[in-house]
């Protein structure tokens, strides 16, 4: 869809420890400032989901039960964001991709969480699938500035990657072992989707970077493409 963007909003950006209302107000102001564009915002579960997932893991529950709990938290966050944005956002939570498209026809901003259970999938995978369906770019807003050669929080020597091809990114994603509630910039399903559908994808850590992307200006972050 023309002038449409899919944004994956990490759960830890919504609720790092408590609800970050100051950040969310800035996020709303950013999307409001680009009122000629439409947005689908897919909310993640973040640390909130991981707390519940870890509890189920300790109890010996299977991965599907852990993932289903994570899905519930992503939807909780989506519902909160719908109410946070108010009238310009959707009033009901979409549970399938066609409903997302239909809501986008009458709303400038549509929020959703994970749409359904799928093995080895995260909310980023959902966002990539929606971007492929709508044939639009995909922005992943996370808590680091982009893609690195390894986890920069654990390895100070990790090198930043400003641009990478879909093929090379897929090779990196394949090395990451899947866990419910995993914390990597994009999961394997998302990597496969953006490669197959040739979706231009941005990984960024700031609202300023998103603003510059939307204005087609130079930004700090990673672009995945040709």
Features:
226 residues; alpha/beta; 7-stranded mixed sheet; two-stranded antiparallel ribbon; 9 helices
Give an account of the 3D structure.
- This protein has about 230 residues and is an alpha/beta fold.
- The chain has one domain (about 5-225): Carbamate kinase (3-Layer(aba) Sandwich), CATH 3.40.1160.10.
- About 45% of the residues lie in helices and about 15% in strands.
- The chain contains nine helices and nine strands.
- The chain has helices spanning about 10-15, 20-35, 45-60, 65-85, 95-105, 125-135, 165-175, 190-195, 205-215; strands spanning about 5-10, 40-45, 110, 140, 145-150, 160, 165, 200-205, 220-225.
- The model has no long low-confidence stretch (mean pLDDT about 90).
Structural class: alpha/beta
- Structural domains: how many: 1
**Fraction of residues in H or I helices:** 40-55%
The spatial strand order of the largest sheet comes to 3-2-1-4-8-9-7
Measured between the Cα atoms of the first and last residue, the distance is 21 Å
The chain-level mean pLDDT equals: 91
